[in-house]
Amino acid sequence: MLREGKKRRFKPEVRKAQIIEATKELILENGLAWASVIRISNALGISQATLYYHFKSRRDILLTTFSSIVNDLIHKVITSRPAERADDFIRNAARAVYELTIADPRQPRLFFEFLCAPPTEDMREEIQKILSVAIGMIEEAVKRGIRSGLFREDLDVTVVAWEIASLGIALNIGIMLEMPNFLSLEQALGAVETILQTIKK
Fold first, then answer.
1. From the centroid of its chain, how far is CA 175?
2. At 22, which helix (H) or strand (E)?
3. Each residue's pLDDT tens digit in the chain (201 positions)?
4. Do residues 23 and 35 lie in contact, with contact meaning Cβ atoms separated by under 8 Å?
5. Which of 10, 120, 160, 168 has the fewest Cβ atoms within 10 Å of its own Cβ atom?
6. Which residues lie closer than 8 Å to 185 by C-beta, 6 or more apart?
7. Chain centroid, CA 122 distance in Å
8. Positive/negative CA dihedral, 125, 131, 133, 135
């Protein structure tokens, strides 16, 4: 855990990043409920007042933490390998998801801790919005493929986007459960290629 002397001061963006990281560690230790304001502030050696200076509530901390997990993935997808063609974008996105998940096996566990949050946490609507952005990126790629004449015009864009997204979800479950005989990168990309072949003209 991150700790520092009481007199040391950090820039707000640095402190917020520390709070998010401490929150992740607490969630990984014992689940979402374990990430209380007291435990987060204790993990960093700061007062609760300092915590509330950077975040207005525990819910705000949790939502920002979840957003950071998804944004890490989206950033990796966008910056991994720029692609003009829609099918290349989807291939590159699939590779980025695989590589990020393998590189940091904590991500799937954190992801599912948030998805399984009880109603009392009151985060469902905000999490839906954040995930809608990720699904929307796939939908936009499929639409772009249709407009360019690469994909079939009769496609149900939403269904295709969810088919592609479901591969990423299954990948995360497999990593989280440490499944034996886990898919290699080549096998995972092969599964994406199968979907692409069914939607191409």
1. 14
2. helix 12-30
3. 545 445 567 787 889 999 999 999 999 999 999 999 999 999 999 999 999 999 999 999 999 999 888 887 777 777 666 678 999 999 988 998 898 888 888 888 898 899 888 888 888 888 888 889 889 989 999 999 999 999 999 999 999 999 999 998 898 889 888 888 889 999 999 999 999 999 999
4. yes
5. 120
6. 95, 98, 99
7. 19
8. negative
